[in-house]
């Protein structure tokens, strides 16, 4: 006679439910991480297309190397920085030690289903900052200088910014009520302002400006490749923003600050911000590169309030900020600043405007555990902190590299092309045999074509 199985106890059922929830959490973030890699495939494609033929591979290799150097930087130091510095510049030593590579949680551990998956998501956020920086510097920055800069930006600075403003106990949130659910400040502003500072010291590409200060167009070799790359970035952003929400086992989703939210709110406002951004940039430029980048501006500009905005308001915010972004890029050109892909206008300005606007529309929304509510001055102050945290280190480090002649390739190398001098390889070796030398500003003969407000953004 068959033995009857003993039914599970309540404790066993509870343990089974809890483990199921834990595994579901791991699976959710696992696929968010996979989607986030699409961001880097997108930047790779976009920046290759935005470069001239002689620089196409160099732009791609920089993106690949950024990924390769930033991920171990976050493992060796960045994760500890995020956990240890929510109070400012004085670390919490226990949290610092817990995030170091020799900690039990920083490796395979059957008792810890969370640390590795969250670390990986943060590493992907970090790699995004490196890709943002990469585009602004194409066609004249030394590969070695870029690697140094991207390690500092992605492996340290963004994690410090996240500890201050994207941590449930970060001082910006505790004291000022700073609210940045979708990382407009801690990722995009940090990278955008860092890139602006480096561009100031790096200087413009040869042939970019005339003696009278007017700008020449430097047109990338593949518009379709750039447009497809931008759309891939948008696809990846659904993983990026999925990583901005906390899976709360057995309860409602919460945002990074512990406030209740859900993926439905994120879906409404991400798509509406994206759509508004497309139209806003199209209305002011009629230009496909800025139209697609306007979609990205739209998402960034609504990112601080993804969990709270009405979708109609998200559409209008995305449209307005994206309409202004090309004008910001034109303003940089007036100062002879050659941000090759409009990285500051898209990420720096888009993030700043989004934070300030959120302070207007979300002021008074309560925080958790008695912390300060959202306020206009809290959002403005947080935006200024992010701008300074990105710009000042970026300027100092790039100035030092410039002083030692380590920031920029020599003029003859820039004229010849970075593919042959920095990689070395050719993206299209049959091109010269079939069509002769490709035209380029500062190369054989000036490129023709309209100014793109004034170049392709990313």
TrEMBL record:
Lineage: superkingdom: Bacteria
Membrane topology listed for this record: Multi-pass membrane protein
Record region (Disordered): 436-458
Keywords: Ammonia transport, Membrane, Transmembrane, Transmembrane helix, Transport
Transmembrane segments: 28-49, 61-82, 116-138, 145-166, 186-204, 225-248, 263-282, 289-306, 312-333, 340-364, 376-401
Regions of compositional bias (Polar residues) in chain numbering: 436-447
Main location class: membrane
Record keyword Membrane present: yes
UniProt domain Ammonium transporter AmtB-like: residue ranges: 28-428
Localization annotation: Membrane
UniProt record similarity statement: Belongs to the ammonia transporter channel (TC 1.A.11.2) family.
PANTHER family: AMMONIUM TRANSPORTER
Record's protein name: Ammonium transporter
Organism from which the protein derives: Pseudomonas cuatrocienegasensis
Organism taxonomic ancestry: Bacteria, Pseudomonadati, Pseudomonadota, Gammaproteobacteria, Pseudomonadales
């Amino acid at each position: 006679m068959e033995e009857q199985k003993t039914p599970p106890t309540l404790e066993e059922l509870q343990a089974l439910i809890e483990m199921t929830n834990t595994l579901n959490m791991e699976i959710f973030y696992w696929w968010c991480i996979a989607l986030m890699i699409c961001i880097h495939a997108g930047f790779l494609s976009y920046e290759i297309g935005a470069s001239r033929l002689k620089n196409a591979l160099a732009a791609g290799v920089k993106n690949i190397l950024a990924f390769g150097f930033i991920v171990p930087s976050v493992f060796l130091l960045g994760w500890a920085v995020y956990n240890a510095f929510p109070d400012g510049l004085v670390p919490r030593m226990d949290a610092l030690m817990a995030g170091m590579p020799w900690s039990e949680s920083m490796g395979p551990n059957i008792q810890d289903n969370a640390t590795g998956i969250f670390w990986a998501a943060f590493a992907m956020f970090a790699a995004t900052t490196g890709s943002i920086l990469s585009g602004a510097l194409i066609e004249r920055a030394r590969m070695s200088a870029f690697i140094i800069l991207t390690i500092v930006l992605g492996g340290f600075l963004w994690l410090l910014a996240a500890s201050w403003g994207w941590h449930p106990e970060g001082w910006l949130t505790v004291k000022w009520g700073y609210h940045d659910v979708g990382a407009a400040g801690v990722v995009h502003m940090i990278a955008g302002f860092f890139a602006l500072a480096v561009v100031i010291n790096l200087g413009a590409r040869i042939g970019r400006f005339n003696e009278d200060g007017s700008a020449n167009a430097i047109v990338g070799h593949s518009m379709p490749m750039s447009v497809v790359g931008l759309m891939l970035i948008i696809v990846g952003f659904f993983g990026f923003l999925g990583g901005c929400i906390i899976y709360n086992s057995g309860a409602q989703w919460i945002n990074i600050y512990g406030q209740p939210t859900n993926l439905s709110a994120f879906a409404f406002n991400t798509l509406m911000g994206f759509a508004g951004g497309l139209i806003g940039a199209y209305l002011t430029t009629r230009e496909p590169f800025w139209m697609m980048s306007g979609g990205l501006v739209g998402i960034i500009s609504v990112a601080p309030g993804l969990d709270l905005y009405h979708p109609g308001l998200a559409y209008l915010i995305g449209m307005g900020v994206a309409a202004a972004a090309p004008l910001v890029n034109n303003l940089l050109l007036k100062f002879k600043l050659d941000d090759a892909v409009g990285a500051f206008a898209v990420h720096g300005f888009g993030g700043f405007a989004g934070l300030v606007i959120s302070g207007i529309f979300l002021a008074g929304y309560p925080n958790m555990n008695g912390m300060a509510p959202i306020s206009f001055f809290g959002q403005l102050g947080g935006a200024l902190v992010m701008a300074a945290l990105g710009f000042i280190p970026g300027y100092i480090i790039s100035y030092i590299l410039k002083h030692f002649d380590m920031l920029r390739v020599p003029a003859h190398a820039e004229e010849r092309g970075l593919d042959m001098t920095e990689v070395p390889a050719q993206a299209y070796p049959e091109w010269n045999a079939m069509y002769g030398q490709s035209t380029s500003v500062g190369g054989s003969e000036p490129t023709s074509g309209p100014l793109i407000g004034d170049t392709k953004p990313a």
